[in-house]
Amino acid sequence: MTTRSRRSLLPFAIVVAVGLAVIVLGVVFSSRFGTDPSLTASPLIGQPAPDLSVPYLEVEGDFDFSTLDGDVAVVNFWASWCLSCRDEHETLLQAAAQYADLDVTFVGVMVQDQPGNGMRFLDELGRGDPYVYVDDDRSRVSLEFGVLGVPETFFIDRNGTIVAKVSGPVNGPLLTGTLDAIILGQADDLGVVKTGDIENR
Amino acid sequence: MAELRRWAGWAVAAIAAVVMVVGLLPTNQPPVDDAARATALASNLRCPFCQGESIAEAPSQVARDLEAFIVEKVGEGWTDDEIYAFFEARYGERVRLDPPLAGWGAALWLSPLALLGVGIAAIVSRRRDRAAAGAAQPAAPSQVGASKVEVS
Amino acid sequence: MNALTGYLAVLAALGGSAALGWTGFQVSRGRKPSSALRTPVLLVVLGAVVAMLALETAILSHDFTVAYVARNTATTTPFVFLLASGWAALEGSIVLWGLVLAAFTYAVARTVTPGDGLGAGALSVMGLVGVFWFGLMATVANPFEVCTAAGTVGCNATSWWPLAAAVAPLEGVGPNPLLQNHILMAVHPPMLYIGYVGLTVPYAFAMSALARGERGKVWLDRTHRWSLVAWCFLTFGILLGAWWSYEVLGWGGYWAWDPVENAAFLPWLVATAFLHSAVVQRRRGMLQAWNFALVISAFALTILGTFLTRSGVILSVHSFTQSAVGPTILGFLGVVVVASFVLFALRVHLVASSPRLESLASREGVFLLNNLLLTLFAFTVLVGTMYPLLIETFSGRQVSVGRPFFDRVTLPVAFALLLALGVGPVAPYRVAKPAVVWRRIRTPVRISLVAGAATVLVGVRSVPTVVVVVLAAFVIGVIVRHLWSQITPLRPEMGIGRAAARLFRRDAGYWGGQVAHVGLALVAVAIATSTALAVRTEVRLTPGEAVPVEGYCLRYEGPFTESTAQRSVEGARLVLLRDDCATEIRSMAPRLNRYPNSAQAVATPDVRTGLVDDVYVSLAGGSADEIVLDVFVFPLMWLLWAGGLVTVAGGVWSFVARKPPRERPTARPPAEATAHG
Question: Does the pLDDT of residue C25 top 90, yes or no?
Fold first, then answer.
């Protein structure tokens, strides 16, 4: 008698188990449609900006990130082999000139590249004024900022807190919009914005 | 003569077993030094600037720099947990290729064991059923001796 | 014109599939003669062939009015890559899929005789599966969309309506750089598709048998050749994929536990389990319900694999970009799983009463263990692949599961599988007497101990490697001893060679399987040595400089560049020398290839394969005056490819040489049954 009742339970158990599995899978996968699997949240948003020093790209000496204290800063990671870095370069130069009077410092951090290549890149596309170019020769800055590829751009407010991150090339409206919000102290809900694919090698 | 050969064969096998065991004794293993620890850490962390490989595997320059960083911190006496925490604070949990054995991570690590338990239980219980029913059922035509099998 | 022909062909195949689904059902119920199946099958085959031809014609004639052509090829693309573009991108891959399915449908249809309800039902199921794939081509993955607005390069807007006013861009975007980099990128996916689609056949027969309430092993007998074909192609596809990853992608490995690799591996594991459990049912009548469950799972996993690869929901180097194809395949997966298991549950009372195990210590016991282990292996891989998705969906946390998890958890399972591989052939059916087993394994045990000691004496101190060597030597020893004991009585008559050939021919299924086991043992050894004993160093070189590297020596001659319309190459000319830095072995040229349509350079390593080890050199970076190289030395790498090929050869042998069941003689010569041991 026991075997009989167990048999009649078996099909029921199979259907319930498979049905559950299908529902879970369905929920899991359908919640992923329309989202970008490469978008990674940054735990650094809302955290104090790292404090370290790193050699300048074109002149002797080290740049110290603690000198940014009290300024709004835009920290852009780039490399000469990165194509979208070329796309955003002009935008960054214009913004650097435009916001120079508002105590906004632009820092260009070259990663994964040889200084010679980086200088040729700047010769070709122009240098910002004012603009700090540094060479992340030991990848420490990338590590401190949790960089996943280039281009990536971080925004630091006057209190030295990282308030926003753009993954992919920046565009004019996004850059000025973010900076205006930070300057006006409305940078609470900026978070991570993805504009395109980042490159890595 | 045949007897002697058999004994010689087993003597060789016994010597081989001893050689193997002695050769693999913990004292003959490379020591778990800082370099080994650093390599283990680097293989458990995703190279953030690469495409899905660990820091230890990835061919890129950033991976080498991060490896050097890990070696440096291990040398300074950081614990494994401190190094994991440092990376997680910057890159997020995703940087760990090796989910920690806690919370849902424990479920992940232990789920194969659970399935193994269920599987063994299923096989053993079916055999018991059989043993109980075996007395009543006449056995199927015997195939003892037919040792061939077709792997289709 | 190409677009119209192609689209009409897709519609024809779709209509044929639908008709086949319905007619097959009617024929299987005996309401129609089996000749009614002919027209739908021909329609499916004709449609699938013409669709593929239309797509290739459009590609080869640079017909950029077809959006697929404009998006995935360019006028500068070399001929072979043009040809391969027909299936290398998303929509084209589904056209090839449809073609393979049509070929299998045709081949199955040829075996359906009048009054064959089981076969007609299977054709009906294949028709329904065809409805999905051809439906996909007719809607969300339409390869024949026409270009309605041309960009400077490629197409800006498309229309599914094949008669819409079409414009042709002057130039196409060109193929994916990874495809252009090496033709193997175009060869290994079709192998996997044939394997995936091949698993549709056993699934279709299983569904037909369940629906008709047929118990017994008829469906297994009729599908074992198909399962073997599918298994061989899957194995070969995975092997080629690994080889491609090693020789072409410069990261210095062949298996990354990437979700898409796992997606190909999962059906392989389950199909392997099925091949073995099918033996148990055919010999002993056991595991009837389990076999149905395995076949359904294997088929569902091929769909899951297709979904993971084509939906873009998972971050992987292999994946296609996101589109409406993802949700559609997901829906199909849900329908397949629910419908199959509901049918299974309704019929399980018919098949669950098979004979049970007498003793765990028996051939059946080892087969059960093998199935448990393979299922466990598949489960582990599945859970590891799905875990990040589950966690992100339910808690929003982003986590990864990578090599450390997969390596650690699958290692003990793999060891146990190897052990089962060795014990299986020596354990008799029903009950294994310890004395019999001992007599059969005592020589292999001694051989394996000596092999292990030899490995230690060469200087290997890695415990897992030595364990693998011991187990592999045991597996091979058992098989060779068995072969030898079978040959011995025949030897006086015909000599060793002819005796072995005769055994292999007479019992192709068994010996083919054993050959595959030998191959797997070799693969296990190669995986162990190339993982645990590999060395990797970074080398910096200036022109003319030579440095010793891990028992060899590398000299940097200088940089070189090449530039064609298709790509530009930056590379380093190197010479590999013996460790004296004087004797030249050969020249090497690792390179970075750049393609006009992509920012990323594709690194191509140079590999020198030797009997003892491989020297693997990949260009990591550098400037004009100094290059940075990643140099790996992988011991016994050739064994991986050789072992893989032996495995495939074993599989091929067991279905090529085996006579179809009805022609097989019923009585066997007595020598076979007793010669063992």
Answer: yes
CA-CA distance, B52 to C406, in Å (whole number)? 14
Of A161-165, B26-30, C54-58, minimum mean pLDDT range: B26-30
A21 and A86 share one domain: no
Q: What is the pTM of this model?
A: 0.90
Structural domain count of chain A: 2
Structure tokens at B47: 């190279």
Taking residues B130-137, what's their average pLDDT?
48
- Token pair of A84 as six digits: 């979208």
Residue A107 belongs to domain with CATH number: 3.40.30.10
Which residue of B lies nearest to C256 if distances are taken between CA atoms?
A: B53
> ipTM for the complex?
0.84
Residue B97, phi then psi, degrees to nearest 5: -80, -10
Contact C337 A18 (CB under 8 A): yes
Does one domain contain both A25 and A111?
no
- Give yes or no: residues C225 and C212 share one domain: yes
Determine the average pLDDT of the residues in C237-264.
Answer: 88
pLDDT for C41: 97
Per CB-CB distance under 8 Å, the chain A contacts of B68 are 138
Residues of A in contact with C623 (CB under 8 A): 114, 116-117
Query: Which of the other chains make 3 or more beta carbon contacts under 8 angstroms with chain B?
Result: A, C
Domain boundary pick from C430, C447, C468 = C430
Domain spanning B33-123, CATH architecture: Orthogonal Bundle (1.10)
Residue A69 lies in a domain: yes
Query: How large is the average pLDDT for residues C54-83?
Result: 93
Q: Tell me if A199 is assigned to some domain.
A: no
Strand spans (E) along B16-126: none
The domain containing residue C325 runs over which residues?
Answer: 183-430
Q: What are the two backbone dihedrals, phi and then psi, of residue C148, each rounded to the nearest 5 degrees? A: -105, -15
Residues A71 and A3 in one domain: no
Neighbour count for residue C111 (Cβ, 10 Å): 14
Answer yes or no: do B90 and A140 touch at CB < 8 A.
no
pLDDT in tens, A66-123: 888 888 999 999 998 888 888 899 999 999 999 988 889 999 999 988 888 899 999 9
Say whether A43 and B92 touch across the interface (CB within 8 A).
Answer: yes
Question: Which range marks the domain in which residue A148 is found?
Answer: 53-194
Residues of chain A contacting B50 with CB distance shorter than 8 Å: 200-201
Biggest CA–CA distance in chain C, Å, is 82
- The answer to whether residues C233 and C362 belong to one domain is yes
DSSP helix/strand/coil, B45 = strand
- Which residue in A15, A19, A30 is closest to C330 by CB distance? A30
Task: Mark yes or no for CB contact A144/B90 under 8 Å.
Answer: yes
| Separation in Å, CA A75 to CA A78, A94, A152, A165, B47 | 10, 15, 8, 9, 21
pLDDT tens, position by position, C407-428: 999 999 999 999 999 998 888 8
CB within 8 Å: A12 and C345: yes
Dist. CA C604–CA C598, nearest whole Å? 16
Give the bridge partners for A150, in sequence order. Answer: A199
A92 and A186 share one domain:
yes
Q: Is the confidence at residue B128, as pLDDT, over 60?
A: no
Same domain, yes or no, for C609 and C620?
A: yes
Test B90 with A145 for CB contact under 8 angstroms.
yes
Q: Is C676 a residue whose pLDDT tops 50?
A: no
